[in-house]
Amino acid sequence: MEPLRYKLIVQYDGTHFAGFQIQPHDRTVQGEIQRALKIMTKGKEVIIHGSGRTDSGVHAKGQVIHFDYPIEIPVKNMQRALNSLTTDEIFVQEVSLVDADFHARYNTSGKKYQYRVDLNAIPDPFKRLYTLHHPYPIDMKKLKDALKDLEGEHDFSSFCASNSGREDKVRTVYEASVYEDTFNNELVFTFRGNGFLYNMVRIFVGTLLQIANGLRPADEIQRLLEVKDRNQAGPTAKPQGLYLMEVYYDSSKAKKGTDYQEDSVLGEQVQDELDHSIK
Fold first, then answer.
1. CA distances from residue 251 to 52, 103, 113, 246 in whole angstroms, order as listed
2. CA 241 to chain centroid
3. pLDDT digits (tens, 9 = 90+) for 103-117
4. Of 156, 236, 149, which Cα lies nearest the Cα of 196?
5. Distance of CA 83 to CAs 27, 32, 172, 269, Å?
6. Active-site positions, per UniProt (predicted)?
7. Taken in order 36, 41, 45, 50, is the CA torsion positive or negative?
8. Dihedral over alpha carbons 226, 229, 232, 238 (to 10 degrees)
9. Which CATH number is associated with domain 4-106+250-278?
10. What DSSP character marks residue 203?
11. Is 247 helix (H, G, I), strand (E, B) or coil?
12. Which residues contact 148 (CB under 8 A, 6 or more apart)?
């Protein structure tokens, strides 16, 4: 039987992971999911492919991955098994079967990120892993005006880590916005685009906060887009405030009629094996 390709939407708390991508000596999200899949296949390696990398400390509410699995398992059973075998830091939100040519990374048409900034004067220990603490005055009008300058197609060389290695730094930002979460006294930035360079969102935030504080002029974004020099932009904001929210695809390529019934003979046999392996 030919392997089936599964597409998953995964949430994770990135605090105690050295990023998404597998590394030889560090704990990663990819490594944790592949460990669970190896248990399910009784020792056979299953390689997963993500829509993109997230750095150490960065979180995800809508990371997309795919992998080829050697036997047919109903999507609900696949979800149940993985959620049983991974730690509580990872949750498989959705599972679907897709065509063999679907690729979680190469078929993406865009992504959505959010970044959360805690404005409280005193640091909250319960927010330290999920927001950037920034207890300084914010000029919301200057901030919103500067965000608008990021929208559209631009060369974002000034907002890309110098060691990224990518030559083409032209991207299109469809949305760059912010709102005040008054209940939590936080700023919530949203960025949607057709692609993002390494550390691009975090450099956006580091620069925008300096504009909102009055440390940089209101038209600074326009100047930085013109000079194309990372050294002239603001600092890279810390990773813990960043969330990958959603990944967009032109078409899901999901197969029809392959969400097998839970009471199918195949489903019962596979689930019995999975329940036994989990125990």
1. 18, 11, 20, 14
2. 12
3. 999 999 999 999 999
4. 156
5. 18, 11, 35, 19
6. 55
7. negative
8. 110
9. 3.30.70.580
10. H
11. strand
12. 176
Full-model pTM: 0.89
Residue with tokens 């020792």, as numbered in its chain: 43
pLDDT tens sequence across 202-231: 999 999 999 999 999 999 999 999 999 999
Asked whether the domain spanning 115-189+196-242 has the same topology as the one spanning 4-106+250-278, the reply is yes
Report the alpha-carbon distance of residue 89 to residue 36 in Å, rounded.
Answer: 13
CA angle 165, 174, 230 (to 5 degrees): 35
Residue 113 is labelled as binding a ligand: yes
Q: Is the dihedral of CA 72, 78, 84, 86 positive or negative?
A: positive
Of residues 151, 239, 162, 148, the one with CA closest to residue 198: 162
Which residues are marked as active site? 55
Distance (Å) of CA 99 to CA 19, 45, 64: 28, 21, 15
In whole angstroms, give the CA distance from residue 135 to residue 151: 27
Nearest residue to 129 via CA among 238, 210, 32: 238
**Which architecture does CATH list for 115-189+196-242?**
2-Layer Sandwich (3.30)
To 5 degrees, how large is the angle CA 18–CA 80–CA 115?
40
Token digits for 209?
């906060």
